Amino acid sequence: MRRCLGPLVTLFAVLWLPAAPPAAAQGMPRYGGELIFAVPSEMPSYDGHRESTFALIHPMAPHYNTLLRIDPMDRSGSKVVGDLAESWTVGKDGRTYTFRLRRGVKFHDGAEFTSRDAKATYDKIVFPPSGVASERKGSYVNIEAVETPDPYTIVFRLKFPSASFLSSVASPWNWIYKADILEKDIRWYETNVMGTGPFVFVEHVKGSHWVGKKNPNYWDKGKPYLDGYRALFIKDSAAQVAAIRGERAHIQFRGFSPAERDSLVAALGARIAVQESPWDCVLLATMNHEKKPFDDKRVRRALTLALDRYQGSQALSKIAIVKAVAGVQVPGTPFATPPAELEKLAGYWPDINKSRAEARRLLKEAGVPEGFAFTFKNRGVPMPYEPLGVWLIDQWRQVGLNVRQEVAETAKWFADLRGGDFEVAMDAQCGYMVEPDLDLYKFQSGPTSAAPRGISDANYARQKDSVLDELYVKQSRAIDPEERKKYVREFEKRLLDEEVHSMYTLQWHRIVPHSARVKGWTVTPSHYLNNQLDTVWLTE
Amino acid sequence: MGKYIVKRLVLMIPTLLGVAVLIFFLMRVVPGDLVELRFAGESAFAQKENLDTERARLGLDQPLWKQFLVWIAGVVRLDFGKSMWTGAPIIEEIKLRFALSLQLAIMATIIAVLLAIPLGVLAALKQDTWVDYTVRIVSIAGLATPSFWLGIVFILGLLIVFKWLPPMVYTPFWINPWQNMLQLIWPALAVGYRYSAVATRMTRSAMLEVLREDYIRTARAKGLWEQLILSRHALKNAMLPVLTVIALEFAFLMGGLVVTEQVFNLNGLGLLFVEAVAHRDYTLTQALVMLVAFVFIFVNFLVDLAYAWLDPRIRFR
């Protein structure tokens, strides 16, 4: 019976059909109306190249375009399509990418978009001047040069072939800025808005709301459908639910908990639609390799073997935003591990009794006594850290470990992770798109070409593993998807099974209940994607 | 009287300076810093290069004493600088929220006073009758009910019964009084009820005490009109502790309504305060603490002036 649960749970997560039909099958779009959505946080500045919060993307993405984007109708969040680049070619050496840019694209001030703007944008992201922070500069270390042979062509020359380059160019953060503005003041975009996107900026009242109106000169003729949108900054989740329930807002794009979804469905019935997806966020239990006995891989292996992920998925998915049992990639995406293969990894075995017996044996062999006590450091955020923390502690107790939980407020938790002041801690991984280069970066110990300074800034387990580092590089440079898949599997096996540097808990599960009036929007595994709103429309 | 006012005003300076020193260094002692929080986003990941760049830009790489001197020099000129989180001028950040918080505090105070004074006096006059018991039950219920919980009850009630929710965006009173009231009357009632409970209990006990004083008995023996005894002799003297309670509650409302603001999604000072602390926004937190400290000190100063008006003996001292 237990053997059947694992594949079923994962399969269910992958094939889960939302109550709302896919955006492409929602009928003829209707023009007009103002979309109102809740945003649970607020952006620090307006610069997409600098910030890392969804609170920036949700209200501001509609003002901008990127060169490429993720297809807004693609539920896997991995299909790359053109945005300001209408076509592209890759050189035979796999190191030269040439993008043909759209003509007739105008910035909101009427100036024409050319390759000069695209180059200035990428220069700011990849080669920022001293004193200017570029949050994702590390994702573009393979770019050697950016060239503009003519006003409608931009060429990227890479130092080495990269499997993720097109996805990197489709990053939702790489908003195209205006070259003239950047030349005058490279920080201008921290406090101002000027893009080519489907909506023009109207106002931002701090702590309250953000308003955009339709761009009448948008290059994609016929779009957008909405007259405008209004983002309400609502921090409290109960107030967000109330806003949807009271029809003061149509949607909150990040997601709600299962209980909140159920209360909305119960209250609004046919007036609410629900879209769900495995979420490209996961909490990991990270074991500090510099603290005994977690420097011993037998102990680390025992800790992951103690977890009954399949049972945990069933229980926790009712109360928390977690669901699928998964490896290092989101289920249902191109490089995800099939359930049958996943079951071979430590901690994913279908027979939990066998798994826990092996855990006890390993602990004994490593000299860890029955009742061994350690502290698990968790982040003081209720969802889903709290339920997952409680679950982990309970699981470890079942193999004779005595775990004390220390809950730290976010700033302290983060400082302790970075400073190595923990034995075992909850760690987080949240990607802006499903892409192995982004999802696996944090586990590098270096020095490698991708992490030239040595240890990755996010390798909180503090492991040194040159084999893992090499596998990262190999998967990153494997242009053939099948070959890349093979390296991702090897990486996963080494990370989670052979060395157990870290352990994945359960994949987050994104639940977006929204007004049934909202059409043309499709949930993806990332809450950073699909926020341009050009395809969204409202029914009567 | 003029000397007294000047003396009190001058005394505010060392108090505020003490608060400034305390909050500046306390913020630096708390673990974690805003640069890490900002660049980590939802993942626990931030590049060291960015952290260093940003710290240098914000002056956080400077020695503490230097940071303090720069900040305190600004405070003296009433220039609190920019928010380290948003980069916006702090005055701008606070101005936006101050109007809402002030209006809410005034509305809640009006509701509280309108309920508390008559009910407290009535309970004292009708001591140990059903009137007194009813007032006591209502006021104890108010003390036991957190205002944010009452707010949730209001919201659920409005949603379930009327299928309606108060507006979620603040409209200033002078732009649209109706919209403004539709949004703020509910939190004002929720907060005002708890506030009135405190003031009612205080009014009742103060009145009971005063009504037993010799001068009240003397006034009654002289055959003074009862209404005059109550208003001029009893209530005026009983108001001294009530005024203190009302003033302190008012000052608290100017930055302490965190959960109520969350429940009603109000863009007030309380939420701003909590976010500033959570983000480790040093400059904004310091400015807000200074503001709240100033409000408390100033309100206390006004109370002292009112004491002098209510009780002439204080002026002579």
What is the secondary structure topology, with strand pairs?
The complex is a heterodimer of chains A (540) and B (317).
Chain A: H1 2-15, E1 34-39, H2 54-60, E2 68-70, E3 80-82, E4 85-90, E5 96-101, H3 115-126, E6 143-150, E7 153-158, H4 165-169, H5 179-184, E8 199-205, E9 209-214, E10 228-233, H6 237-245, E11 251-252, H7 258-268, E12 272-287, H8 297-305, H9 309-316, H10 339-342, H11 352-365, E13 372-379, H12 385-397, E14 401-408, H13 410-419, E15 424-430, H14 436-440, H15 466-477, H16 481-498, E16 502-515, E17 518-519, E18 537-538
Parallel strand pairs in A: 1-10, 1-11, 13-14, 13-15
Antiparallel strand pairs in A: 2-3, 4-5, 5-7, 6-7, 8-9, 9-10, 12-15, 12-16, 17-18
Helix pairs in contact in A: 1-9, 6-7, 8-11, 15-16
Chain B: H1 2-29, H2 34-40, H3 48-58, H4 64-76, H5 90-125, H6 130-144, H7 147-162, H8 177-211, H9 214-221, H10 226-253, H11 258-263, H12 269-278, H13 282-310, H14 312-316
Helix pairs in contact in B: 1-13, 5-6, 5-8, 5-10, 6-8, 7-8, 8-10, 9-10, 10-13, 12-13
Structure report:
The complex is a heterodimer of chains A (540) and B (317). Chain A is of the alpha+beta class and 540 residues long. Among the domains of chain A are: 2-7 and 278-509, Dipeptide-binding Protein, Domain 3 (Dipeptide-binding Protein, domain 3), CATH 3.10.105; 65-194, Dipeptide-binding Protein, domain 1 (Alpha-Beta Complex). Chain A is 29% helix and 21% strand. Chain A has 16 helices and 18 strands. Chain A has helices at 2-15, 54-60, 115-126, 165-169, 179-184, 237-245, 258-268, 297-305, 309-316, 339-342, 352-365, 385-397, 410-419, 436-440, 466-477, 481-498, and strands at residues 34-39, 68-70, 80-82, 85-90, 96-101, 143-150, 153-158, 199-205, 209-214, 228-233, 251-252, 272-287, 372-379, 401-408, 424-430, 502-515, 518-519, 537-538. In chain A, the strands form 5 sheets. A 5-stranded mixed β-sheet of chain A has the order 8-9-10-1-11, sandwiched between helices. A 5-stranded mixed β-sheet of chain A has the order 14-13-15-12-16. Chain A has a 4-stranded antiparallel β-sheet with strand order 4-5-7-6, covered by helices on one side. In chain A, a hairpin with a 5-residue loop joins strand 4 and strand 5. In chain A, helix 15 (466-477) runs antiparallel to helix 16. Chain A is globular and about 70 Å long. The N and C termini of chain A lie far apart (49 Å). Mean pLDDT of chain A is 91; it is low at 1-19 and 449-454. Chain B is globular. In chain B, helix 5 packs antiparallel against helix 6, helix 5 (90-125) crosses helix 8 (177-211) and helix 10 runs antiparallel to helix 13. Helix content of chain B is 78%, strand content 0%. Chain B has 317 residues and is mainly α. At the A-B interface, helix 6, helix 13 and strand 15 of A face helix 2, helix 3, helix 5, helix 7 and helix 12 of B.
